[in-house]
Amino acid sequence: IDIRNCNIILASTGVVFVDVEDSVIHNNSFESNNYGLTLSSCSYNDIWNNTLSNNLAMGINIIDGGIYNKIYSNIFPYNHREVIRIREASYNSIYDNHIYGTFLWSFLNGAITIENSSHNILKNNLIDENRIEGVYISNSNDNELIDNRIIDNIGKGIYLELNSDKNELIN
Hints:
By secondary structure, the protein is mostly beta strands. Helices cover 0% and strands 50% of the residues. It is globular and about 35 Å long.
């Protein structure tokens, strides 16, 4: 599946994939949706060069066993809560994204949230001027955060809790 050059506005969820592999989502705009993208039990998908803005609950949601998905070179301006959430998903890569202006503070969430997940890589992201934590990691192990710039957020830059062991923070 190749989803490209679309403007997806005012949907409950812009795109939902369940058990989808080897797809590409690129050059799209997701605006004012509840969720921009949800990938459930999906693997080997690439999400790149999209703009996800003003989404109410979440920009990108990778859940329920998703592995080896890549989220890169996207822009996430002015979303309401979590921008990228990885929950019960491993071996995903999030890199070269710009997340800014998230404005609705939500307890125990971050611009990037990793929950019950392992072996994910966050690299070279710019996370700035958000009203929530930059990166929130809960009950997740063996994740790598490399060369991210997390600046001018109202919440903590990086918040680890609840059995989050063996995570590497490099820079």
